[in-house]
Amino acid sequence: MPGPGDVLELIRAGRASTRGDVLEQTGLSRMTVAGRIDALLDAGFLVERNGTDRIAAGRPSRRLQFNTARASLLAATVDTTHTTVALTDLAGHVQQDARIDVAVADGPYATLHAILDSAQGLLARAGLTPDRLSGMGISVPGPVDPDTGRPSQPPIMPGWDAYPIPDHLHDALGVPILVANDADAAALGEQRAAHPESRSLCFLKVSSGIGTGIVIGGQVYVGTDGGAGDIGHVKLAGHDDAVCQCGAHGCLAAVASGRAIARALSALGKPAASASDVSAYLAAGDSDAARLTQAAGREIGEVVATVVSLLNPGEVVIGGTLASPPLITGIRETLYPRSLPRATRHLTISQSTLGERAAIVGLATMVVEREYSAAAVNAALGG
Questions:
Q1: Does residue 205 share a domain with residue 163?
Q2: Of 107, 253, 267, 354, which sees the most CB atoms within 10 A?
Q3: What are the φ/ψ torsions at residue 233 (nearest 5 degrees)?
């Protein structure tokens, strides 16, 4: 029999918003539904407010909503050159955030120590203690084993392989910790915020590296052991001289990432060391940066064409530091000619609407869906 957690899941998913909806969706008796909803209201999982619709007797309907102010969340997005730490509500709305200059190459101990310092500073400024948190999500630029939450042979994260990130952070904060790949988190954030009806969405992150997050049927597809979407290390023919950070030759990331474009700009006498530097040139209208970024987009489009023909997504969303009109133009130039026409007839290619906050929204969503799942809430309420 559906418990209170199942009722909450219906409401969180938007499949029910009134007591009548819950009756219809569950088939439970009116008394049982009332008991389930009252238990959720008493525990603070739900709020009930006057709606605008009116029922037959003329009284305004009462709307049930997930109480996103019940607790807060911490989210940290680790990038190759910096990290962002944020305090959010349960809907992923950022209440406070901080950018810290710690790079993934600094290793797990230094990076996680800096994240904890920043997180504790955010909590102190908000007047919160860890017991007011439902959990913390952290994204990293590499594959994550879905069973352990540990990085799994990440190509550009030296010293992180199998590092116990969940244990490290839990020991310090005492809250549940969720670890995800950065493109996966951003893909889910974009899907929930901008494409809620999407059947299949691919998020393409182009920064110092290149990765893809895949959301199918509203769920992130991570593959057998977390390696799905790692297209940055697909080998390109004719580029054997390009050395990747992973140590291999000819990887897409070695040819078309922000780091590769930065090298090409430097060779032209325009100093650049990272994707952020390339982005600054693009923002200033530099023609060489635009030309090189568009050329990189063409290389990326050749690989993404295979992804599109395989998955037939409705949306390809471009994010990351290099998300820009020149990059998208280049991707379009090769993706469409190299894809099956049927695979692209309903395809939209667009720039991220959330920008750097996409992964934060995605992490918040992941934490909430785990900590407020039907099973978790039923266990908490004895249902």
A1: no
A2: 253
A3: -115, 20
Q: Do residues 347 and 313 make contact, with C-beta atoms less than 8 angstroms apart?
A: yes
pTM above 0.90, yes or no: yes
**Domain shared by 174 and 220, yes or no:** no
The answer on 345 and 199 residing in a single domain is yes
175 and 217 inside one domain: no
* Domain of 247, in residue numbers: 194-354
What is the Cα 273 distance to its own chain's centre? Answer: 26
One domain for residues 244 and 170: no
Number of domains making up the chain: 3
List of residues 6+ apart from 283 with CB closer than 8 A = none
Which pLDDT tens digit goes with each residue over 316-368? 999 999 999 999 999 999 999 999 899 999 999 999 999 989 999 999 999 99
**Residues 276-286: pLDDT tens digits?**
999 999 999 99
Secondary structure (3-state) at 122:
helix
Angle of CA points 137, 168, 67, to nearest 5°? 30
CB 186 within 8 A of CB 362: yes
Q: Which ranges constitute the DSSP H helices of 43-93?
A: none
Return the residue matching tokens 């407020």: 372
- Cβ–Cβ contacts within 10 Å for residue 153, how many? 15
Element (H, E) at 113: helix 108-126
DSSP state of 193: H
